[in-house]
Write a structure and sequence with these properties.
This protein is mainly β. It is about 0% helix and about 55% strand. The strands form two sheets. Strands 1-6-3-4 form a four-stranded antiparallel beta sheet, with no helix packed on it. A three-stranded antiparallel beta sheet has the order 5-2-7, with no helix packed on it. The two termini are about 20 Å apart.
Length: about 80
């Protein structure tokens, strides 16, 4: 689900925990981050994406799991700050 907000704001998405199934090509479990409609990052394993700041007023975080391995998943906080448009 896309995160949309007022036109002069950007989103800061901070991953505070990250533990997904690891694969060299992130085939099984992954988080994808989009800046608007452009995919900017795919992450899996235990290396956190850190903090992502959008360049405009739309961002999206997409999660996929194949359910073959149980891990703790991820958590993130989202803040909206002035800085866009």
């Amino acid at each position: 689900m896309p995160i949309s907000y007022v036109s002069f704001q950007v989103a800061e998405i901070a991953f505070t925990a990250f533990n997904l199934e690891r694969a060299s090509d992130c085939t099984y479990d992954w988080v994808k981050i989009f800046n608007g409609t452009t995919e900017v990052m795919t992450k899996c394993g235990t290396s956190s994406p850190g903090t992502f700041t959008s360049s405009g007023n739309t961002a999206k975080v997409e999660f996929h799991s194949d359910s073959s391995e149980t891990r703790t998943g991820f958590s993130a906080t989202v803040n909206f700050v002035d800085g866009g448009g």
